[in-house]
Amino acid sequence: MNTKEYLRLDSVSGSLIALSGAEDVAYGEIIEIMVEGGQKRRGKVVLVDEDKVIAQVFQGTQGISTINSSVRFTGKPLEIPLSKDILGRTFNGMGLPIDGGPPVYSRNKYNVNGRPMNPVSRRYPRNYLETGISAIDSLMTLIRGQKLPIFSGNGLPHNELAAQIVRQARIKGEEDNFAIVFAAMGVKHDDADFFRRSFESSGVLEKVVMYINIADEPVVERITTPRCALTAAEYLAYEEGMHILVIMTDMTSYGEALREISSAREEIPSRKGYPGYLYSDLAQLYERAGMMKNREGSVTLLPILTMPNDDITHPMPDLSGYITEGQIVLSRELHQKNIYPPVNILPSLSRLMKDGIGDGFTREDHDEVASQLFSSYSRVQEVRSLAQIIGEEDLSETDQSFMEFGRAFEKRFLGQGQDEQRSIEDTLNIGWEILKILPKDELERISPEFLDKYYGS
Predict the structure, then answer these.
(1) Are residue 272 and residue 388 in the same domain, yes or no?
(2) What are the residue boundaries of the ATP synthase A/B type C-terminal domain, all occurrences included (predicted)?
(3) In a domain? residue 360
């Protein structure tokens, strides 16, 4: 370990400091900076080039000059103490308590960069996780151990949706063994207060661990926030045997923090100014979700991204789509119709859904009902386009029934209250009620036995 103290810096730029002559320094190592007057700050090594080192200062470089500070290398990465006592607590992006409670005491400290999961030791995700939201549970079912991002846009109610999922999410039969890790990056003060109040008033706070990084806090803290949250999730899942749902909002803020730090390090930018390693950096986070053989617990990941200008080809949603197993896309058009949650089902999907639904998991008719709803709503879009040309009155009787189905689907099936929790049975029953608007011979994706059982004569 490098125990030398370095008394001179080469330069101070933004939140970065540079020094030379350093020996045995590792990337990601934590440093301690003593500023004149006895003030102590921490930083993280972000670049090592032979004996030259660049480090990011967590609390910012205000008051630091090249001659009034000393630097000591700790020889360790950022580590946080973890125990089951973290449930119900709120921490900042560095893993320090900000709820007025005592520090977390634990025999072990855990490296926030995590331990990569060996692909061979992964278990295939099976059981579904119920969010209480019809559009998600029926049409893009979240499977335990899955990574399923929500693609949103500025001004869309993704914060309300995230809070509702935290309040309502459950795994049948595992209620006491289920908890949520919530990470917020670059959020405004009023958004952070909204989340806290929402969890407190609904009584779920004791099952939630919160890691919050406010927009006016240091950018480097935004990089460590999701890592602290995922480390806590891994600890609760694999050492305490719990089922953990991790919700991270907003990953676009995280990407912008990466871009800012990359720019400060004068790295060559890639697409839209993001660093070339954006894909591998996101993969390091997302791939920490999953289930392991010989371990009881699971980590399920629901990252939320706001797409700049609603552009789904933007690097953040684009790369996230490659790494994760599906996506939930929110629609501005549905939001303008006052439909909440405004889930656009046609570009949304869950690639693992087929293995966690049906008899023994949800209900025997789930797969066929979901397929029929997708198919019928897709037909609605075609009929609406035709109606704009010839008028709704001149549509055929069948096409008019599809128009009516489309309105009912958006209002009664997609639309639900922010405090309305629907079981999977409730959701499928509503699906059948809406499908009954259509003639029986139009339901070509449903087998005759289910039509007889649920549609009636």
Answers:
(1) no
(2) 355-455
(3) no
Determine contact, residues 83/42, Cβ cutoff 8 Å.
Answer: no
Rounded CA separation 425/411 (Å): 18
Rounded CA-CA distance 266/289 in Å is: 32
CA gap 163, 199 in Å, rounded: 7
Q: Is the pLDDT of residue 414 over 90?
A: yes
Is the domain of 278 the same as that of 172? yes
Q: How many CB atoms lie within 10 A of CB 60?
A: 15
First to last CA, the chain: 78
With 90 as the cut, is the pLDDT of residue 391 above it? no
Domain boundary among 306, 329, 354: 354
Domain termination site, one of 53, 73, 93: 73
Q: For residue 280, what is the domain's CATH number?
A: 3.40.50.12240
CA atoms of 316 and 302, how far apart (whole Å)? 15
Tokens of 395: 């549509």
CATH of the domain at 59: 2.40.30.20
* CA gap 39, 136 in Å, rounded: 50
Is it the case that residue 3 has pLDDT exceeding 70? no
| The token pair that represents 356 in the structure block | 């966690």
pLDDT in tens, 133-184: 999 999 999 999 999 999 999 999 999 999 999 999 988 878 789 999 999 9
Say yes or no: 37 and 127 in one domain.
no
Q: Is residue 361 part of a domain?
A: no
Whole-structure pTM value:
0.91
pLDDT at res. 130? 92
- Average confidence score pLDDT of the chain: 90
348: in domain: yes
- Which range of residues forms the domain containing residue 120? 80-354
